[in-house]
Design brief:
About 35% of the residues lie in helices and about 30% in strands. The chain is built from ten helices and twelve strands. About 40% of the residues are buried. The structure holds adenosine-5'-triphosphate.
Length: about 250
């Protein structure tokens, strides 16, 4: 499904972070949102998911304003992995991943064959089978992040919005997660949008990027065009060195 922001102005207490942002994310596209700390990436993801009200403008899914969609319809359509999470959950990994099915079966205890298959598949994809019966509260940071991604996979929304999905993951699990998210877009025609801090993963796995500048400007387009040395130096406000490894350019700050 198509996720669109139209003339979106976001901010807090009447003060805007950026104004009149327009972006359209199509089925089958994998998007990266990049920018410095505090530029408004999480704020944008919250607005795309209907969790905060824009100062002006709107977000829509298939032309329907997110603000007008029933919460249950929204949860069946769009899945969010947010940065902040309360750590009060006292159940097992399996219980937690099964929560992903809540929007579809309307019950925390409800089970259905398709849902259980998705839960098992999500555990497998995030390499969590051996941890399925462990209490979530006893896991390491990276293990917990994989569990949170697995819950989102079990939810199986049409649009995936993820805030720093690679947080706490070791580099091998980062690669696994990025390939998986890219494949959701490439092979299942899902719309995937994620906040990333690593420009290499963005250039390797995202079709498109949205660059949010500290001065409120925004630039969107093909990752291969926008992730240039000049753009990244301006975006992050630091000098970048281009390293070419196996014909792939990596930009590393000095
Ligand atoms: N509830 C709030 N009330 C007031 N200001 C807020 C609120 N939430 C965030 N901000 C401010 O809005 C700005 C954007 O925050 P946001 O979390 O979107 O940044 P970000 O780009 O995701 O940053 P990071 O890379 O550090 O996660 C920051 O300056 C932040 O301090």
């Amino acid at each position: 499904m198509t996720l669109s922001a139209e003339n979106l102005t976001l901010g807090y207490s009447g003060k805007s972070l950026y104004q009149n942002l327009n972006v359209t994310m199509l089925p089958g596209e994998c998007w990266g949102i990049l920018g410095r700390n505090g530029c408004g990436k999480s704020t944008l993801l919250h607005a795309l998911g209907g969790l905060i009200k824009p100062l002006s403008g709107s977000v829509s899914i298939q032309g329907n304003p997110v603000a007008s969609l029933p919460r249950i319809t929204l949860a069946q359509t769009m899945g969010l992995l947010l940065q902040e999470e309360s750590s009060l959950f006292s159940g097992t990994v399996l219980d937690y991943v099964r929560f992903g099915r809540f929007p579809h079966n309307g019950s925390l205890a409800g089970r259905d064959e398709l849902g259980e298959a998705l839960v098992q598949n999500a555990l497998e994809q995030m390499e969590l089978n051996a941890l399925a019966l462990r209490l979530v509260g006893t896991l390491s940071g990276g293990e917990r992040q994989r569990v949170r991604i697995a819950m989102l996979l079990a939810q199986s929304p049409v649009i995936y919005g993820l805030d720093e999905p690679l947080l706490h993951l070791d580099i091998c699990h980062q690669a696994t997660a990025m390939k998986l998210l890219r494949d959701l877009a490439a092979t299942q025609r899902k719309t995937v949008v994620m906040v990333l801090h690593d420009t290499l993963w963005a250039s390797r796995y995202c079709d498109n990027v949205l660059l949010l500048y500290e001065n409120g400007n925004a630039l969107s387009g093909a990752a291969k065009d926008l992730l240039s040395k000049d753009n990244l130096e301006e975006l992050y406000g630091c000098k970048m060195q281009a390293l070419i490894i196996d014909k792939e350019v990596h930009y590393v700050p000095y």
